[in-house]
């Protein structure tokens, strides 16, 4: 009895310690006390519950779940349902968490809150929206703002991923979270300018909210704003402002945010901007998409887009095996999706295996008829790239749902015309026109559609261009029958008949309106005073004035233009008679003695009679024709003296211009820039 009393007293002391630590938030110390209590009584339900709560508060979700599963007899689902579901949720076992919540005998408010979060993670947005609406309607506590934020997040997700037009929830956007979610919903609707304004408002509210806390630094604010700035950059990218978007993306990456989901999305968006350029940067960025926990932060469509871009990047970097592996994995996950098979076909084309690529696309089109149209368009493009235009036309004509579309008709007619297959081109027009006739059978008495009439007109013009006049006449008569007041069609019809049946053309010409009825009421004065008419009138007047002046001046003697005095050479001497042969080339002048060979050999005995040969004259490096070099010590005066000497043998008759070499030297001395 004394031992039991001592144990009870010890347990009471431990429980008071647990209570005190719990109030202070010291769950690590509380856990120690709980473990001591369990040593006294290992099946104490309250102690086990407290242990699970302490482990959850310390972030040890796996250990907490282990305690729950170990003591299932004591900790029944009624007692510990919320804690078990929460641990499974935090360990990303979302399906298990859902089962735990649904199996609980009583749905408490805590379980309902968790149920909403679980449905959001499972992307069951309709059920999630209903759950949060029920919570907001039946709850009145301090967490109402958080529930509204979650509700707006669900609406934004529906708008973004399911393309559902969001309903107005009437939420007052008083917080930056609500503003941000509203902006995301607008992006999903394509209202980018409105979304940008919402994000700017969210940024302003965020700064105001965080700056009120003195403990929050500027770095903390920037980290919180990172997701808002990331969404702004995404809008810029959608608007085509890729440079601005890229700059903002890189600024966010430099901040090194802790949100791996945000980093993965930004890295993926940068890769999409780079495309097949700057692949080295893309290979660095793709590492951010492989971070641990990314798969739990993003939606299925976001993860799928990242995998697609990885496959494309592998293709651009010539990693053929990696590209095939990734695209095959994607195809197994989403067999009906177009992109994996298109990536595989693109890789085969890069390997010059066009026939194999077309076969792959054909197999997919046969297996998935719903996506056959897009696949066949790609097949036709490949055939055109191979030069098989006729085969491409056959593939395009097999797409029944597009045969009558004006764009398809135009493409086929152009391609057949290129191949000079006029009959097939006309057949395309005929089939399209018949399609409209069949689908408008219920409106026989009503007017034909503008597209139908436009096709008939284009067919008629095409037939006239290629000499099929009788067939064109039939189409033009159909058009004129639909609109007898159409003068343009009537004129075309008369023109066509004039080449085939002139008499019929004369008969039809009677239906043309008279010149009186065709006269337009034009204000001549207003037309003449218009800007264009004034310009033409002024120009005409100017030309007329010029002509009149020419006519008047025909009898007058033309004034002689003053001749400009020619420029004289700098070394011109008026006292010396100029060289009469100065206009002739040097070789044709009488005093030209030819070019002397061996200039650089020793010139002993070749100087002026009675002169002595100095050392400077024998040094070839010091002659005037040599390129300038740095002077040797003590030789500068000799060089300058020799450079001005012109031997009589090379001297020209008096008054003749200096040699070309002399002129070059003077140019060098007086040159200014440009060389």
UniProtKB/TrEMBL annotation:
Record carries keyword Endoplasmic reticulum: yes
Keywords: Acetylation, Coiled coil, Cytoplasm, Endoplasmic reticulum, Isopeptide bond, Phosphoprotein, Repeat, Ribonucleoprotein, Signal recognition particle, TPR repeat, Ubl conjugation
Domain Signal recognition particle SRP72 subunit RNA-binding: 538-594
PROSITE patterns: TPR
SMART domains named among the record's database cross-references: TPR
Entry's localization field: Cytoplasm; Endoplasmic reticulum
Role description: Component of the signal recognition particle (SRP) complex, a ribonucleoprotein complex that mediates the cotranslational targeting of secretory and membrane proteins to the endoplasmic reticulum (ER). The SRP complex interacts with the signal sequence in nascent secretory and membrane proteins and directs them to the membrane of the ER. The SRP complex targets the ribosome-nascent chain complex to the SRP receptor (SR), which is anchored in the ER, where SR compaction and GTPase rearrangement drive cotranslational protein translocation into the ER.
Family assignment from sequence similarity: Belongs to the SRP72 family.
Record-given protein name: Signal recognition particle subunit SRP72
Name of the gene encoding the protein in the UniProt record: Srp72
